[in-house]
Amino acid sequence: MSERLQKVIAHAGVASRRKAETLIATGHVKVNGKVVTELGTKVNVSDEVKVDEVPISKEPPVYYLLYKPRGVITAVSDDKHRKTVVDILKEVPERIYPVGRLDYDTSGLLLLTNDGDLDNKLTHPKYEVEKTYVAKVKGIVTNDDLKQLRTGVVIDHRKTAKAKTKLIRTNKESSIVSLTIHEGRNHQVKNMFERIGHPVEKLSRETYGFLDLHGLQAGEYRRLRPHEVEELKELSENVKR
Question: Which residues form the RNA-binding S4 domain (predicted)?
Fold first, then answer.
């Protein structure tokens, strides 16, 4: 049975499906000693696949939930030698990578895995996985502000999808707001609050689908339970058609 090369690389835990496609297109992948740059290439189990001259091997899929601290990069490595989320899970033997990303100064729930298929589904725009953030923002947020977030605001000439909001508390200088979205645009939560005139001072992702941070402190992680993995896979199949 043959499979697409990028899928084989993703299943081996080397990179996500999309990152694997980039590796192929830029000449980092060899099949049976020859550089392959065509994304449609299919390989068999008997074929030798190397990424940057390192043979890949099929690893069992693993799934971890991390309470990402602020000041940590959501990446496998960093050319500026800053601490990455993978550094926190350095005891994990498999080659895992983060599902999506959280900004350097954002804390909260982050998934890491070597399952390229699941990563691709959870991060693809057509799959709608709800994520809840709690933001401390400048100024006093009003009901009209929340209504704008719920109906959608225009960012880069495109309106955001409807969001769920909750005002947790306010003081004279700031507000704490819960915001639930299913999109994943770059810096989306910060940009949404910026758009309504309340810049984010502090941000944390509290939930991802049905998963939350219960029992974890910043910098701690745990392996997902089997039933959570199955539920996450079911969730990833919830495509809006």
Answer: 3-66
| Edge-first strand listing for the sheet containing 29-31 | 34-35, 29-31, 49-51, 54-55
Domains and CATH numbers, the chain: 3-55 (3.10.290.10), 63-126+214-236 (3.30.70.580), 131-208 (3.30.70.1560)
Verify whether residue 103 is a known catalytic residue: yes
Active-site entry in 78, 87, 103, 212: 103
Cα 76 to Cα 98: distance, rounded to the nearest angstrom: 8
With a CB cutoff of 8 Å and minimum separation 6, the contacts of 177 are: 134, 135, 137, 141, 146, 165, 166, 167, 168, 193
pLDDT tens-digit profile of 97-142? 899 889 999 999 999 998 877 887 888 767 778 999 999 999 999 9
Are 181 and 205 spatial neighbours (Cβ–Cβ below 8 Å)? no
Element (H, E) at 222: strand 221-223
DSSP conformation letters of 14-54: SS-HHHHHHHHHTT-EEETTEE---TT-EE-TTS-EEETTE
